[in-house]
Amino acid sequence: MFIEYAPAAMAMFDREMRYVSVSKQWMKEYDLSGNVIGKKHYELFPNILERWKEVHRRGMTGAVRSSSQGNDRCS
To answer: How far apart are CA 34 and CA 55, in angstroms?
Structure first.
């Protein structure tokens, strides 16, 4: 419930990028509807660039990455 009702856009994924929990704000900001739990992130967002998928893969192994808002570069 913490994530679902958080005032920020938040999502939790399992190690295969399937949704475990999402906030109502996430659903609103990304114009999603219905039940996304169990669906893979890339099914809902098929146009994600490969470089971002690599960032996600690294994050799943514990690596920390960040990106400045409005900046498409990973650092």
So the answer is: 27
